[in-house]
Design goal:
This protein is α+β, with helices and mostly antiparallel strands and 606 residues long. The chain is 27% helix and 27% strand. The protein folds into four domains: 32 residues, no CATH class; 165 residues, Sandwich (Jelly Rolls), CATH 2.60.120.260; 204 residues, Rossmann fold (3-Layer(aba) Sandwich), CATH 3.40.50; 178 residues, no CATH class. The N terminus is likely disordered.
Length: 606
């Protein structure tokens, strides 16, 4: 006789046991269930080789986990720890990094892109021939549901050198080098790490992922974090800070943060950043500095040095440029490629730049084609003198030198170039036009608003509230009579009695003209009454602080081969961050335009 046994669900068994033996068994079962659930959700230390808990190599290892989600993600929590350091990417976009395995990092992401399939990728680096491990936990929250997965052997991994360049950050990843990760043990108990990791109290960063809407014509938007990379001319934009000041003041209602990572002599390979290391170290330095800024916009100013290679170097330049672009695209930022400036002919004994300018034009055309092919913005910077003087006049009519040697801009050259670059990035014109009819009291204004108009005692008084600050003043080293290059405001006052009238701005004499000239419109300069120079001073202070943060003068002692002497002081470098933030708060206040009192006063011949 065949006896058939029915396997009861464990819940039935538990119910029968609890009826027979009371609540003790029930409590024990619930405790066991809790232990099992906790263990199921407890992350494992993983690496690419099973002996990593004792000893691992120093080659970077990349890990990937693909997960499916039904419905849009409301929030994603990613907790990571790595011995020694990691960089994390979600769907190819950088989300954060960490370099202390005892202090895990938790990244809380909101406003994620829609999609059923997602990829979490981590680049892990061991600093010495010693133990190495990565631990991760991901909580995916959708409407009314939450899914948890942790680091275990279901993750795949590969040496970064064996994985196609940056493809490991995305899906799919076409490589035969991938293998299941090796589990090294449960976090909190396993390996040399033991219980020394604060897994239950990670440092948490909330990241509101900003997916910038595609723009046919580039424009800075509220919340932009703008990172500038390139060679000498990009780095030296922060000598005078004209460009950043112009952009910041043009958008008083938008928070736009700038980080200048330009490096003199640099190329798309990052070679100038290698310091005492290899070209690979230079590119790694560029990557680290770039990812730290978490950009939404990257302004890229390379190609000038590479143009010296001529037409024969275009192919190698394209390969190097493509590697850089893959890195830049991994940030999820909007990319704007700026053509290198052409050289200026300043005459003997310096050489005629005709040949190198032809090569710059060749590389600029290639940059335009490559950028547009990949769907990125391109700005033809070229020769800023064309726009500085007159759109219809040739550059040869520009009467002033802009460089000190045909290549490097003077302060005046940077002042002109900043305005040109701002215009080509579609930054609003800060100038205004104001027309007042004294008889009818009618006012027409563009770029400003006139209030409190008074006509009496033989004078005309009013107060203007500008839309934005004025342009920065000409640098003291500017050539004589270069004022005509600065866009000016125009004030027209009709109906004044005949004679000469003087304009006072905030109580200080500014312009003298006849009633007829005032009726036609007189050019005025409100820079002296605008706090734009105070704003530029704050921008300069902020940039100097950040320069010391990412390029400390004693970095050889802090981070490189002499760190055994002063490496303990490296903890002070991140302390620049809150100081920079405090100055940026002052910048937000200083970019706001202020009211300006104006008064027309009749003048006698005495």
């Amino acid at each position: 006789m065949l006896e058939v046994f029915r396997v009861r669900p464990w819940t039935d068994t538990l119910a029968r046991c609890s009826r027979r033996y009371g609540s003790v068994v029930l409590m024990l079962a619930v405790w066991l269930l809790g232990v099992g659930t906790a263990r199921a959700q407890q992350p494992r230390w993983i690496w690419n080789e099973p002996q990593a808990a004792e000893q691992a190599g120093t080659d970077p290892v990349v890990f990937r986990k693909t997960f499916e989600v039904a419905g849009p993600i409301e929030q994603l929590e990613v907790t990571l720890a790595c011995d020694n350091r990691f960089e994390a990417y979600l769907d190819g976009v950088s989300i954060g990094r960490g370099d202390n395995w005892q202090q895990p990092q938790r990244f809380v992401l909101t406003r994620l892109a829609d999609g059923d399939s997602h990829v979490l990728a981590v680049r892990a680096k061991n600093d010495g021939v010693d133990p190495a491990g990565l631990a991760a936990q991901v909580v995916v929250k959708t409407a009314g549901d939450a899914t948890v997965f942790v680091s275990d052997k279901s993750w795949t991994c590969a040496l970064e050198s064996a994985a196609p360049a940056l493809w490991w950050q995305r899906s799919p990843a076409p490589s035969d080098a991938w293998q299941p990760a090796a589990e090294l043990g449960v976090v909190g108990t396993a390996g040399p790490w033991g219980n020394r990791i604060a897994w239950d109290s990670p440092e948490t960063s909330t990241i509101e992922t900003v997916f910038r809407a595609p723009q046919e014509k580039f424009e800075f938007v509220d919340g932009d974090r703008v990172t500038m990379i390139g060679g000498t001319w990009i780095e030296r934009l922060q000598v005078d800070n004209f460009f950043e000041t112009i952009v910041t003041s043009a958008y008083p209602d938008r928070n736009i943060q700038f980080r200048n990572l330009g490096w003199s002599g640099d190329e798309v390979t990052g070679i100038a950043r290698a310091v005492f290391g290899s070209p690979q170290d230079g590119f790694a330095r560029l990557r680290d500095d770039l990812l730290r800024t978490r950009p939404t916009v990257i302004l890229v100013g390379y190609g000038g040095n590479e143009a010296f290679r001529g037409e024969a170097g275009l192919e190698s330049f394209h390969a190097e440029w493509s590697r850089l672009v893959e890195l830049l695209e991994s940030t999820g930022a909007t990319l704007v490629f700026i053509s290198p400036p052409r050289h200026e002919n300043v005459g003997p004994p310096l050489p005629d730049p005709t040949m190198i300018n032809a090569q710059i034009d060749l590389y600029s055309a290639a940059l335009r084609e490559w950028a547009e092919t990949r769907g990125h913005h391109f700005v033809d910077f070229g020769d800023p003198r064309l726009e500085a003087s007159n759109e219809d006049s040739p550059a040869s009519r520009f009467p002033y030198a802009m460089t000190e040697n045909g290549l490097h801009f003077t302060s005046f050259g940077r002042w002109v170039a900043a305005q040109t670059l701002a215009r080509r990035l579609n930054v609003p014109d800060p100038t205004w036009r104001l027309a007042i009819d004294v008889g009818s009291r009618e006012v027409e204004a563009t770029g400003t608003t006139a209030n409190a108009l008074e006509v009496g005692d033989g004078r005309v008084r009013w107060v203007v509230q500008d839309d934005r600050l004025a342009l920065p003043s000409l640098p003291p080293s500017a050539p004589r009579n270069a004022e005509f290059l600065k866009p000016m405001d125009v004030l027209a006052v009709n109906g004044l009695p005949e004679g000469r009238w003087g304009l006072n701005i905030n109580g200080r004499p500014a312009v003298l003209a006849t009633a007829e000239e005032w009726a036609q419109g007189v050019v005025i300069d409100r820079s002296s009454a605008s706090p734009v120079e105070a704003l530029r001073g704050l921008v300069s202070q902020k940039n100097e602080l950040y320069f010391h943060r990412y390029r400390p003068q004693n970095e050889t002692y802090l981070f490189l081969f002499r760190k055994h002497e002063q490496g303990n002081n490296a903890v002070e470098i991140p302390q620049f961050d809150p100081i920079v933030e405090r100055v940026e708060q002052e910048i937000r206040s200083a970019r706001q335009p202020r009211s300006i009192a104006m008064e027309l006063v009749p003048l006698t011949d005495e």
